[in-house]
Amino acid sequence: MPTDKKRKNRKSKAQTHMPEAELATTSSLEDTEAVPSGAAQPNGHASMMPAATAGRAYTVSIAVPGSVIDNTQTMELATAVAGQIARTAAIFKIDEVIVIDDATNREPGTIGAGAAFLARVLQFMETPQYLRRALIPMHADLRLAGTLPPLDAPHHMRATEWATYRDGIVLSSVPGEGSLLNVGLDKDAYITQALRTNVRVTLQMGPQPTQMTLQQAGLGSGQQVLFGQLAKPSSPRESEGTYWGYTTRLATSLSQVFQDCPFEGRYDLTVGTSERGTVVPGPEYLQFPPFQHLLVGFGGPQGLEECVQQDLALQAMHQNPQPEKLFDLYCNTCPEQGSRTIRTEEAVLISLSYFQSAIRRHTAVSTLKAAV
Questions:
Q1: φ, ψ for residue 149 (rounded to 5)?
Q2: What is the pTM of this model?
Q3: How is residue 236 annotated by DSSP?
């Protein structure tokens, strides 16, 4: 088993497999064509996944440093720490997890071993089980990932469950005829777009299964398939409020967390966490201003202050930059702690629990405004 020292010295090229990134390569939803779909049939699906009652427009992202893995002593502990972060992200419906590569003395063009390890395990955990073999290549970092407790998120559906949306992978496609996808059911799904193979996409399958007989010769005419429509990965959250997992993003520095924000309008509320942050008497006293895209930042063993000191871009832009100046709010979510240190994976769980009341109040206000 690799020790902490060995893990720190191991380098890996910046080619971490990220199936989520390929979602951007799918065809435009505006190109969807209507096709005969046939009559809806139950198709033997025993249960229906419950859907949320209202959509959710806002997103919540967290940024976690890769040094949380470098600080572990064994492969078992490193895997458990990464799995705990993944579970916490799913429990609190986090939409994006950014892994900050805060490794020291890193060569250009490489990423630290801790950041690469964390990103791989996070992706493995978020990917539905029926898609992992095709999307997640075998790697030594994932040797023990199969022993972790599953996320059991709404998009990790079983073959006996049915829901309006479902994730799948493109098995085959023919220009002008469409694509066949594995969606974890006894029948493949069909869409009218011809997509690149081995790409993960989200499909809108409808409230009930819709079977059709395939007429396209290039895809294998005569077989029974399920008709689906291409959807955005955010559609389940935006239309139904159904949590649909998180994307994983690698950032080479703290400043890149902000610069490479994937959301339109960027992060409009940023919150840093630190034992040197402002102490709020309790979660019920914490108020968040209106936001569309919330980012919560966490530091490693040396805190966010260390991330700032290692960020050459921040050092060039600001004289003696301080983390409390980079975030809209800088909070101490566990004042009067009994231990000298709070581990990052513990801070993520504590802080997201602490922020839930403020996020729920924001949700209630947003829902009320939408109703009016």
A1: -60, 135
A2: 0.83
A3: I
| Closest among 239, 245, 236, 275 to 92, alpha carbons compared | 245
Residue type, 358: A
Distance CA 365, CA 369 (A): 6
Burial of 250 (C-beta count, 10 Å sphere; 0-12/13-18/19+): buried
Copy the structure tokens of residue 193.
């777009």
Cβ-proximal residues to 354 (8 Å cutoff; 6+ apart), any chain = 283, 286, 331, 333, 334
Looking at residue 363, what is its pLDDT?
66
Residues paired with residue 338 on neighbouring β-strands, in sequence order: none
Lowest-confidence region among 7-11, 204-208, 259-263, 274-278: 7-11
Q: Return the structure tokens found at 168.
A: 């799948």
Whole-number Å distance between alpha carbons of 242 and 227: 21
In angstroms, the CA 166 to CA 228 distance is 9
- Shortest CA distance to 56 belongs to which of 229, 194, 234? 234
List pLDDT tens digits, range 99-145.
999 887 778 788 899 999 999 999 999 999 999 999 999 999 999 99
User: How far does Cα 286 stand from its chain's mean position?
Assistant: 26
Sequence letter at residue 133: R
Start-end of H helices in the chain: 4-9, 67-70, 75-91, 113-126, 129-135, 235, 254-259, 303-310, 312-317, 323-326, 344-371
